[in-house]
């Protein structure tokens, strides 16, 4: 093969490889986007920042926690 044919083969191979790579990235991105849209309705609402989920009324307790009261 001549030098021009070698260069043309390399250029076409690189073009093909880049096209395949872009195609794979697009398929992964669209799949992730579709999964995100489908799961969006199943997500729980976020916990409000003012409450942590514990039933604490904001007043300090006079007694220590249970793990500090038991005798070993």
Structure summarized in a few sentences:
With 72 residues, the protein is mainly alpha-helical. The protein has two helices and no strands.
- Strand fraction equals under 5%
What is the makeup of the main sheet?
none
Structural class: mainly alpha
Taking pLDDT < 50 over at least 5 consecutive residues as the criterion, the unreliable ranges are none
Would you kindly provide a written description of the structure presented here, covering whatever features stand out?
- Helix content is 57%, strand content 0%.
- It is elongated, with a radius of gyration of 31 Å.
- The model has no long low-confidence stretch (mean pLDDT 77).
- By secondary structure, it is mainly alpha-helical.
- It has helices at 3-39, 66-69.
- The protein is built from two helices and no strands.
Features:
single chain, 72 residues, mainly alpha, 2 helices, 57% helix
Annotate the secondary structure layout:
Layout: H1 3-39, H2 66-69
């Amino acid at each position: 093969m001549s030098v021009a044919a070698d260069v043309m083969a390399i250029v076409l191979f690189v073009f093909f490889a880049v096209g395949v790579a872009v195609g794979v990235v697009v398929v992964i991105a669209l799949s992730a986007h579709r999964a995100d849209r489908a799961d969006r309705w199943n997500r729980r609402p976020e916990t409000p920042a003012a409450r942590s989920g514990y039933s604490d009324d904001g007043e300090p307790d006079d007694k220590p926690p249970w793990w500090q009261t038991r005798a070993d």
